Amino acid sequence: MEYTKLNSGYNMPILGYGVYKVDPVRTEELVSQALKNGYRLIDTAQYYRNEEGVGKAINNSGVPRSEIFLTTKLAPNGGYNETKDSIDKSLRALNQDYIDLLLIHWPGSDYLGMWKAMEEAVESGKVRSIGLSNFYGKEFDNIVNNAHIMPAVDQNETHVFRQQFEIQDSISKFDTKLEAWSPLTANPANVMNNSTLKNLSDKYQKSVAQIMLRSLIQREIIAIPKTTHEDRMIENIDIFDFSLTDEDMNEIKQLDKDVSLFGWL
Ligand SMILES: NC(=O)c1ccc[n+]([C@@H]2O[C@H](COP(=O)([O-])OP(=O)(O)OC[C@H]3O[C@@H](n4cnc5c(N)ncnc54)[C@H](OP(=O)(O)O)[C@@H]3O)[C@@H](O)[C@H]2O)c1
């Protein structure tokens, strides 16, 4: 596994396992598989309703907690007071002493109040790093203009069709790392026949999914693909034994359409 250094001083695995739409009933089993197959970053959220299964898998894995990097996201319900309770609720659901990375899932009405409560959670040791998700432009600026702790990451839709060069550049001024959600476009079946990606797949004898993930981590973007199949988990993490050339990266750059596939910001 390779790591990227966050502005909080902590190292974060560059590739992880995301559990959006993983059925709560299967979460413990699938996260256990991911940990067994070398994943050390797990990305969940209150909204996914599967924090319990994630926590059980971590606690029963036999992997030292210090080697696992756990992210969860707060649903933006309320401001400062509600967030203090909400952080404790996640810690209880996860059955953990601390969360490695806590994100605001999307900008709600009082994200500055939320951020203040998150900064206090860092001071009290409940959380190690804090960050944002789906924050762009005005909302991102508002956080950094009022914060004591700069966001460690901004987790946004990022994949071959939305490569996010502009946001990556603008947040890098605060040493904030871009993290890619839906790094495989959420529907890789639609991408498998893309000629640029197929050619690179043939060239490196790697799957199209592996080419897409490799292109992100080479830009130092953290990627958290989701799958419910163990063979795909193994495939998605097997991307550390080859490198795309500058020319390959330029070809992939041409695929950027700079629009959301999901009608998001
Ligand atoms: N912050 C946010 O607002 C936000 C939003 C969306 C997602 N996320 C995070 O990002 C993670 C990933 O995003 P995502 O789940 O939307 O999309 P994704 O990881 O881009 O794609 C997941 C889809 O790809 C399939 N897949 C996975 N590996 C594959 C492979 N090697 N070959 C072919 N198909 C493959 C999966 O199918 P199977 O499961 O059937 O294998 C699933 O349908 C989420 O789990 C979540 O942690 C965050």
Commentary on this structure:
- By secondary structure, the protein is of the alpha/beta class.
- The chain is 39% helix and 16% strand.
- It is built from ten helices and ten strands.
- The chain has helices at 24-36, 51-59, 80-94, 111-123, 137-146, 165-171, 195-204, 208-217, 230-237, 246-253; strands at 3-5, 11-13, 17-18, 41-43, 69-74, 99-104, 127-133, 153-157, 177-181, 222-223.
- The strands form two sheets. An eight-stranded parallel sheet has the order 3-4-5-6-7-8-9-10.
- Helix 2 (51-59) links the parallel strand 4 (41-43) and strand 5.
- The model has no long low-confidence stretch (mean pLDDT 97).
- Bound molecules: NADP nicotinamide-adenine-dinucleotide phosphate.
- NADP nicotinamide-adenine-dinucleotide phosphate binds at residues 18-20, 43, 105, 133-134, 155, 181-186, 188, 207, 209, 224-229, 232, 235-236.
- Residues 18-20, 43, 105, 133-134, 155, 181-186, 188, 207, 209, 224-229, 232, 235-236 line the site of NADP nicotinamide-adenine-dinucleotide phosphate.
Question: Which labels suit this protein?
Answer:
globular, two-stranded antiparallel sheet, binds NADP nicotinamide-adenine-dinucleotide phosphate, 265 residues, alpha/beta, 10 helices
Query: Uncertain spans, ≥5 residues at pLDDT below 50?
Result: none
Helix count from the secondary structure assignment: 10
Globular, elongated, flat, extended or rod-shaped: what is the shape?
A: globular
Biggest pleated sheet: 8 strands, parallel
**Between the first and last Cα atoms, what is the distance in angstroms?**
31 Å
Please state roughly what percent of the residues sit in beta strands, choosing from under 5%, 5-15%, 15-25%, 25-35%, 35-45% or over 45%: 15-25%
Our Rg estimate from Cα atoms comes to 18 Å
**Percent helix range:** 25-40%
Structural class: alpha/beta
- Give the strand order, joined by hyphens, for the main sheet: 3-4-5-6-7-8-9-10
- N-to-C series of helices and strands: EEEHEHEHEHEHEHEHHEHH
Bound molecules: NADP nicotinamide-adenine-dinucleotide phosphate
Q: Can you count the beta strands?
A: 10
Q: What's the average pLDDT?
A: 97
Oligomer: single chain
